[in-house]
Amino acid sequence: MDDQPAPQKYYSRMEWPVQTAPQRVISLVPSLTEALFDLDLGLRLVAITDDCTRPPEKVGALRRIGASQNPDIRQIIALKPDLVLVNDEENRREDMDALREANIPLWVTGPRSVFDALNLLWNLMDVFDHAVMIPRVREIERAYDYSLAASMAAKPLRVFVPLWRDPWITFNAETYAHDILKVCGGINVFAEREQIDPLPAGEFLGITHDRRYPQVTLDDVIAAQPDVVLLPVSFHPLSHDGWGGSEQVHFTETDVASLMALAIPAAQHNRIHLVDGSLLTWHGTRIAYALRDLPPLLSGDSNP
After folding, report:
1. Is residue 237 scored above 60 in pLDDT?
2. pLDDT for 242
3. If 251 and its partner were Cys, which of 10, 34, 76, 255 is the partner (CB 3.0–4.6 Å)?
4. Which residues of the chain form beta strands (DSSP E)?
């Protein structure tokens, strides 16, 4: 944690959980595991979750401490980390409380926008005292500025992104996924929708009565008339028993065919796409991949 000048517009110092650069880190957040490796900090990791799959060529040798939503707390404590990275959506409140009771320093993350996520990257650079990768973060900043300017100059397309089916569940404007869509040129058709029956307090999400993930019907989707539908085919962090099961949903070509039968512009113009779910829900350095891969799917003059 040196005295070099703070980065510019995307930096606002957070309340740091430690006062010296951490050397023994456990990550319970897959996107931050990937980010630490991308920022040349992977050697500081002593353990990760079973859900931390990227980068695949580097995570294989690390100790596993269970799933993000069911970590082995005793093993974490025994490893004596000087910092544990958690997320207020992906990790359970009771696990965070147990680690706090054991005097384990926690960094509770929870960006709700790309701006927040960029700020988190800058704070990682500071907390880990690792200025060598500042050019990498600035590169992501430039990509963000370019995408934001392009999205403001173009006519945005209306987008529906389900995170779950049976029942269909999506997200509103108070989420990171909404903001990355906006930056890449899309309008979330359910931005103003709230979940009528909020997720229970203390279950899965680290916040009380979360209404950000509304349940919708196919009639709602037809009424919203999306120009584009993006179906996540791989990991997204949100999985809740109240959504119909504890297993994550991975959409397939069968779902594409089903939605193609709907009377919506996305079906009429063949704009129902399977996408890597991490582009929509992972922050960290995955922002760079989202800014590269999502805009072509949300462009009014292209049909990938």
Report:
1. no
2. 45
3. 255
4. 25-27, 45-48, 63-64, 66-67, 70-71, 83-87, 106-109, 157-160, 168-169, 186-188, 215-216, 228-232, 272-275
Distance CA 291, CA 294 (A): 6
Residues 98-128 have pLDDT tens digits of 999 999 999 999 999 999 999 999 999 999 9
Domain boundaries, the chain: 25-138, 155-297
Token pair recorded at residue 172: 């509103």
Per-residue pLDDT band at 250 (split at 50, 70, 90): confident
C-beta of residue 242 within 8 angstroms of C-beta of residue 286: no
Matching fold, domains 25-138 and 155-297 = yes
| Closest of 263, 189, 284, 173 to residue 230, by C-alpha | 189
CATH topology of domain 25-138: Rossmann fold (3.40.50)
Q: Find residue 25's DSSP bridge partners.
A: 45, 83
Half-sphere exposure of 152 (CA within 13 A, CB side): 6
- 8-state DSSP, 175: S
Q: Which residues have CB under 8 Å from 259's CB, separation 6+? A: 221, 229, 231, 266, 267, 272
Region 161-186: mean pLDDT is 95
Pick the closest to residue 95 from 123, 59, 68 (CA basis). Answer: 68
- Tell me if 285 sits within 8 A of 136, measured CB to CB: yes
Using CA atoms, how far apart are residues 298 and 229, in angstroms rounded to an integer?
A: 10
Tokens at residue 134, please? Answer: 């500042």
Phi, then psi, of 275 in degrees rounded to 5: -135, 160
Number of residues written out for the chain: 304
How many C-beta neighbours within 10 Å does residue 155 have?
11
